[in-house]
Structure formats: C-alpha cells, structure tokens
C-alpha cells in the first residue's frame, strides 16, 4: 500500500504594496481617465514648483536694486537692448526688471497668500460649521445668521473693508511688513462662509447616524465626537471647496493688488505686476501686461478645472 503524495503547500500571493493599492484605487482610475485633470495637474505642479524654486530658476533677482539697470527698461521679449545689448526672454518692464523673473517671484506671493487665506477660511468655516450643525439651537442661529449677513455683500468688498480696518490699526512703520499678513486675514475672513454652510449641512446628516449615537452611549464628549467621528466624514466636500476657493483667493489677491490695496510695491504679486503693465498697455509695451496676466489665467483656470474633476471624483452618486 503506497502512501498518497503530499500536496505542496500553497503560497499566498504577496499583498500589493500601498503605492500599488493607491494607483489601482477608484480615485486614481478616475484621474487617469480624465485628460483635462491630468493637464491641469501638470500645469499647476509646474507653476507651483517654479514659484517655490524661483531663486534657483530666475536669471535675475528683480527686487534687488543693485542688479537693476534702468537702461534695460522696455526691452522687448527676445530682442537685444539698443543701449546695453542685453536680451531677456520675456522682456523687461519700465525699471529694467526681467519680466520672467518678476513673474516667478510674484507668483510666490500670490500662491502664499492664496494657500494661507484658504487654510484660514477652512479653519474658521469648518470649526463654526461643526459647532452649528452639532449643537444646534441658538448657537446655530447666531452663526448662520452672521453667515447670511456676510453673504449679502460681495466677498471682494468684505475683503477690502477688513484690509482697510486692519491696515488702519497697524502702525505706519510696520504696514509694508504686515501687508501680506493683513491681506491673508482679509481674504480668509471673507471666504469662511462657504465652508461653514457645507460642513453644517453635512454635520446635520451625520450626527443622526448610528455611529454617532453609539459614541454618545459609551460616554464620548461632544468635542471628541465632533473631532474624531464627524469631522473625517465631512472632509470630502471641504477638499473640493478648498480647491475651488484657492483659485478664487488667488484672483481676489490679484484684484486687491491691482486696485492698489494688496501686496506692497516691495513685494509685488501677479496682481501688482498686472497693474504696472496696464499703465503701459496702450504705449506699445504689451509684454509687461500680457505675460503676468497669462500666468494668472493659466494658474486660476488649471486649479478650477482640477477642482471640478475633484468634485466629480469624490461624489458617490456619479460612481
């Protein structure tokens, strides 16, 4: 009697790595099949990296007076200056500053203000939205009535009002140094309402679900329930609003700087560069306005298109 051959032990396939799981997720599948989102992400990534590494990429430091030569003023793109013989990729402005370098440095200011203002608005809006939606009662009424009143005014006017008040109470010798922070405060305080309204509506739905009731039964505090249980479930719409609000914050900063109430002349943003270029638009120096405006347009449009895709990708009804 012969013994039956022993079967070889089956070796289970190794678990896929985290990067592979992310790459094969529904989110990344949606991204890979959205050409507009891919192009928008590439444009945003290139512009952000160019702004971050501006000191390494820019051929000149446009805000160092020692490197400026007024004789290079109004040099057309790609042409040699008649007096110095120097040529510049995107030309120069009235002060002889390289337009390409000013765009890189100006984009740093615009992106910094935009990101910081959105973070401030998100922090205020998410906090107030959670409190209003979970606590309800008179707390919700006060917060949402304040939000309703603010919505009756255009956000740019609210930002100008806050900027004017904050700048007025700032000592004169610190106004240029604090102008960027005042600008962030003004834009952030004018954009928190959208976050608060969305988070409050989502919180009203989430607080009646079983997992919140279970957390109450085991003695979790209100703060713990809002922070550890409800907040993670309201982040998807918050991320979408934050992406779209980033483009709006950059445009708001450019608008305020264009009107002369934003970034100081010592730290010009894209809006300041557009304002400077607008002064020479009808005198033939078209490049001073065109290239900063095109950069702002590409940046804001790409972020908006990326936000539109993100809204569709995170919407479970469209899956």
Helices and strands, with pairings:
Blueprint: H1 18-23, H2 26-32, H3 35-52, H4 54-57, H5 99-135, H6 137-151, H7 155-169, H8 175-190, H9 192-206, H10 210-217, H11 222-230, H12 235-258, H13 270-278, H14 287-313
Task: Describe the structure in your own words.
This protein has 14 helices and no strands. The termini are far apart. The longest helix is centred in the middle third of the chain and has 37 residues, at 99-135. The protein has a domain at 109-292: MetI-like fold, CATH 1.10.3720.10. It is mostly helical.
Integer-rounded radius of gyration: 26 Å
Number of helices: 14
> Would you count the extended β strands for me?
0
The residue ranges in which pLDDT falls below 50 over 5 or more consecutive positions are none
What is the overall pLDDT average? 86
| Helical fraction | 55-70%
CATH architecture label name of the domain at 109-292: Orthogonal Bundle
- CATH topology heading of the domain at 109-292: MetI-like fold
CATH classification, class level of the domain at 109-292: Mainly Alpha
Shape: globular
State which percent range the strand residues make up: under 5%
The major β-sheet equals: none
CATH superfamily grouping of the domain at 109-292: MetI-like
Distance between the termini: 61 Å
